[in-house]
Recover the amino acids of this structure.
């Protein structure tokens, strides 16, 4: 509830500070005294736009600050979602700077207007005779019906399941799209994969092919080198092997004479063995090295194939080709598994649809029960407020698709005259009628859900004294459960308030300023008497005022 309001430098309010309590608070005052200005200050609190024309003194900033007691509203999660410090006593402040810049704060934390609106939506609800938007919106009508039907938990369950259903459906559509695209490219992907697979790709393939080709292209030169090398080793008397044998004999003789030459003899022996082995290797290589046109042709074909693959896939090494091959294999496997995935998604969609349909049927059933209750109570309350012939026809029409709150379409129809045709409420209801309907709805809703502080701005305009008394009674009943403010010109309503504030415009130093003061019992009787007698304070009016207040 709103416990404190402070306004500085706003319109014709220089400085105003006032405390409020629970129950029904009535605000009265002459036309032009500034009642709408106070309401304008509160409008800033709930996120309405502001401009420099709102400043009383254009050289000073405007401040509107409201303190709310919010312990019973269970708003901790909402505050946490916006990274705000939660306080049972929450202070909301708007500032308009002389240069026109506007700032908003919740518990001294700066916030933008979007956050401000979402938070204060739970704290304060302003209604005027021209404020028709909420009641005429289908979404709000559903909120009323679902509150009476106690559908809150079921709606949360439905919305969570609907969100999951949409995700599954989107995944299914994406999968179908991918399947279609995959089918179109399947043959080509298969061809590319098989082409790469048949090429027997491996790391180092290019290097090995280049080495083999180099050997075959220089076979004559290699044979000559090998033959010459063999001759150097084997040539009689002059060959390296014969010379090593001769050296061996010399060292054997030396070693017989002195053990100091034994190591040298052993080393020569090792060299001899190594040279013999080298000779065998050279001969083997010589036997293997021969012209092979067929092999050369085969290798050239493999190298040509490799170069074609490089060009086709725009790469320059075998590793990149192997990576492309692996990706193609994965893509092909995914394509082949899409059918199974689609079947699984279809099954999930069917199961989710069945679950959603069951919840929708339950929501519809509870709404149907709530409709009869809402209709009866609305008509009874409106009859008390002078709309004896008012009738409602509220219908639910089943839709095939899943909507944001089920499968129901709501037709909220109204007839103001006996025997008149039912038409959509937004097409036939007048401003005065709408005010009373809204009041009746708030009275009913207050029994089913925690409502924010209600502010009614002259919704009693054009209402007779007898009917206004009944409206005041309805407001008083609502105020037993929540805080209610009413800005009124009618003494019948002002007399029913738990508290009565008077708005006055006074001139000081040539300037008009607005003041708000809480009336005591005596001054309250006088104010109501003036409202009854239209400013003239008579004994009859005073007596009537006392009677109204009892």
């Amino acid at each position: 509830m709103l416990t404190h309001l402070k306004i500085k430098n706003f319109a014709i309010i220089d400085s105003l500070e006032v405390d409020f309590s629970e129950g029904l608070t009535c605000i009265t005052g002459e036309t032009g005294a500034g009642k709408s200005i106070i309401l304008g200050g509160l409008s800033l609190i709930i996120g309405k736009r502001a401009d420099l024309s709102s400043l009383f003194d254009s050289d000073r900033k405007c401040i509107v600050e409201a303190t709310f007691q919010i312990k019973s509203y269970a708003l901790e999660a909402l505050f946490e979602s916006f990274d705000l410090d939660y306080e049972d006593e929450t202070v909301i402040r708007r500032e308009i700077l002389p240069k026109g810049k506007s700032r908003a704060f919740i518990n001294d934390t700066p916030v933008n207007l979007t956050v401000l609106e979402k938070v204060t939506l739970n704290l304060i609800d302003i209604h005027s005779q021209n404020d028709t938007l909420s009641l005429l919106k289908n979404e709000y009508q559903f909120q009323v019906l679902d509150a009476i039907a106690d559908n809150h938990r079921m709606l949360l369950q439905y919305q969570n399941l609907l969100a999951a259903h949409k995700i599954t459906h989107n995944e299914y559509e994406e999968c179908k799209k991918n399947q279609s695209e995959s089918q179109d490219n399947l043959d080509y992907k298969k061809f590319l994969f098989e082409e790469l697979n048949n090429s027997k790709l491996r790391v180092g393939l290019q290097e090995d092919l280049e080495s083999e080709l180099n050997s075959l292209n220089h076979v004559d030169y290699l044979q000559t080198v090998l033959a010459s090398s063999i001759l150097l080793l084997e040539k009689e008397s002059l060959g390296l092997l014969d010379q090593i044998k001769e050296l061996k004999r010399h060292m054997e003789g030396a070693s017989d004479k002195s053990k100091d030459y034994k190591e040298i003899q052993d080393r020569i022996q090792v060299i001899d063995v190594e040279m013999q082995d080298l000779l065998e290797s050279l001969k083997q290589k010589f036997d293997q090295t021969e012209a092979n046109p067929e092999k050369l042709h085969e290798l050239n074909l493999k190298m040509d194939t490799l170069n074609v693959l490089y060009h086709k896939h725009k790469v320059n090494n075998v590793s990149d080709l192997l990576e492309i091959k692996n990706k193609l294999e994965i893509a092909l496997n995914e394509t082949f598994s899409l059918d199974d995935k689609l079947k699984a998604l279809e099954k999930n969609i069917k199961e989710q649809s069945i679950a959603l349909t069951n919840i929708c049927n339950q929501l519809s059933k509870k709404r149907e029960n709530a409709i009869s209750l809402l209709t009866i109570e609305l008509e009874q309350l409106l009859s008390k407020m002078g709309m004896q012939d008012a009738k409602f026809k509220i219908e639910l029409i089943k839709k095939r698709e899943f909507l944001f709150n089920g499968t129901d379409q709501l037709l909220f129809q109204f007839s103001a005259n006996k025997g008149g045709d039912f038409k959509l409420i937004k097409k036939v209801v007048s401003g005065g009628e709408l005010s009373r309907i809204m009041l009746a709805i708030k009275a009913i809703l207050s029994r089913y859900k925690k409502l924010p502080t209600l502010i009614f701005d002259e919704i009693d305009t054009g209402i007779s004294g007898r009917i206004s008394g009944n409206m005041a009674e309805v407001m008083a009943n609502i105020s037993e459960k929540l805080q209610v403010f009413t800005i009124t010109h009618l003494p019948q309503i002002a007399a029913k308030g738990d508290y009565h504030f008077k708005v006055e415009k006074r001139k000081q130093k040539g300037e008009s300023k607005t003041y708000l003061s809480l009336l005591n019992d005596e001054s309250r009787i006088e104010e109501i008497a003036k409202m009854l007698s239209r400013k003239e304070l008579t004994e009859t009016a005073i007596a009537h005022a006392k009677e109204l207040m009892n």
